[in-house]
Structure to design on (254 residues):
């Protein structure tokens, strides 16, 4: 039995372990960022040995320099082309810029950059293309879309997909353009056909402008709706809803 697993750390941050390689996606590790407050405390104890960091795009809740500076500088950081300079200033030894279709080897793990339907301009910065990533290793395929909306090419993106880490919301009571909501995320399952789906990008941050000191009810609603929609549209997919900080052992999934 392998030790393959994934741990959802909140928002779009997932620690994936495949074949002994540890990969972290879009690390957002702060209690507060801009006008957002984290609803659930975060345990960083497992992040001192990370082999690679995947950044999907340049928006502040996905590319956060203070969060990156909490991570080991020896980790290879994979970024969309144009974001390398910003990330390089955080002191990492290896920063690799990629375009759609490029592949990077991290130990025995293969990481391929795939399309995403999302605008990726950063304030006071140049536009970079948003990407998703397909991770392949130890006989498994895991899809991390970053932020994206539906696009037809999802149907041919990753045949034989084991796990889809699907964003289902944002960080407030409403959702901006270029994101999946629970309904569109369930429709994405029809195209992707994964064995297992784990909803991410929900239930973690809420705006300070809401005036609430406790997490608001809208943090939990997207997951419940996604489960319902997925059961209607893609009943063959095993949907695993994790708490923030929760772990999924991949040998027991699907």
């Amino acid at each position: 039995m392998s030790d393959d697993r994934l741990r959802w750390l909140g928002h779009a941050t997932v620690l994936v372990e495949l074949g002994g390689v540890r990969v972290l996606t879009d690390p957002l590790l702060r209690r507060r960022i801009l006008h957002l407050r984290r609803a659930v405390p975060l345990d960083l104890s497992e992040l001192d040995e990370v082999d690679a960091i995947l950044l999907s795009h340049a928006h502040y809740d996905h590319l956060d320099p203070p969060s990156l500076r909490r991570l080991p500088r020896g980790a290879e950081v994979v970024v969309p082309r144009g974001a390398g300079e910003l990330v390089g200033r955080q002191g990492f030894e290896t920063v690799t810029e990629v375009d759609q279709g490029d592949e990077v080897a991290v130990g025995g793990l293969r990481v391929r950059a795939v399309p995403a339907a999302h605008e990726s301009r950063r304030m006071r910065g140049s536009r970079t293309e948003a990407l998703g990533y397909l991770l392949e290793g130890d006989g498994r395929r895991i899809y991390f879309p970053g932020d994206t909306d539906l696009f037809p090419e999802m149907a041919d993106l990753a045949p034989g997909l084991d796990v889809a880490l699907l964003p289902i919301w944002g960080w407030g009571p409403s959702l901006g353009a270029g994101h999946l909501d629970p309904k569109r995320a369930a429709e994405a399952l029809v195209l992707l056909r994964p064995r297992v789906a784990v909803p991410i990008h929900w239930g973690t941050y809420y705006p300070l402008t809401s005036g609430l000191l406790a997490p608001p009810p809208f943090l939990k609603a997207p997951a419940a709706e996604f489960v319902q929609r997925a059961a209607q549209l893609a009943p063959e997919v095993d949907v695993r809803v994790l708490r923030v900080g929760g772990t999924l052992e991949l040998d027991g999934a699907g």
The first strand starts at residue 5 and ends at 10. Helices lie at 65-68, 84-88, 182-192, 221-233.
